[in-house]
Amino acid sequence: MVNIPVKFKRVAEAFDDMARDGRQRLCESSGSEHSASNESLPDLSDLVNSFLERGHDEVFNVDYDKEEDSEEDNAIDSKISESGVEEDLMSLFNNEDGDYVKVKIHAEVEKAYLELGGIGLSPMDSKRRLMALLRERGLDAGLCKSKWDKRGNCPPGVYEYIDVIVEGTRYIIDVSLASEFEIARQTDHYTSLLQLFPTVFVSEVKRLKKIIRLMCNSIRKAMKKGGIHVPPWRRLAYMQAKWLGPYRRTINEVPKALQATYSDFNTTTSIGFVASPLEISGYCREDFARRNGARKVGYLAVAFATSPMQL
């Protein structure tokens, strides 16, 4: 006994899978692959120390720091006062080097960010839309997606941010950067550091690298005071991988027409064959033979039987 609806349903499901894959490719975009820039690579001393401490045969684009504090780390901690960390962060956030290109980018990002304020978008869509608005303003902006595998104690992860390239210089753009450094049981000092972060962050890669290192060192000290271990997702290796590791850059925005179509799409919609009209119980050769006096009726008759046409 042949069950026709099941066969057609399987075909319909196959088309649905193909359609979902197509939508995913449209939304993600192929983009272009980029390795970590020279500015984001770890210092030679970091690489040598990491190699000697672990005995690994590989050296990666980001630092995979050891779990425990070293004597060198403790020495650094003793030399850097809490006020000194605040001063260093303020200096890194301020435009003391007179980079007017960065000032212009920051102004454009703030304007675009305010435009998105009243639009209910997901974090991923808001970053893509922000990138598109910056391109409309004449900036070479791109949506960057970093993705890394598990390495040692560093868990795998994925992160998205925006960059703008001006005459070969790459500026990293992130909104609400402070939230990426939030931790449990924050000390008063650590909370004061997070309050220094601007809502809209624009920085060159080398400056961001210094900020990450300062904040990860402060995280370690703050959590040590609280008597808890630093989680893997707040260690230097993981934090560096977000912005300083290899990434895929795309400049495509999903068309608004497709966005509307996809938002209205639900799981009951089928692409290709529609299975539901064919789910008619008992429509097979044997049943037709009984109902039509031993008359043999094939698949074509079954198809016509579901339409208003008369045989």
From TrEMBL:
InterPro entries: PDDEXK-like. It holds the Pfam family PDDEXK_6. This is DUF506 family protein. It comes from Lithospermum erythrorhizon (Purple gromwell).
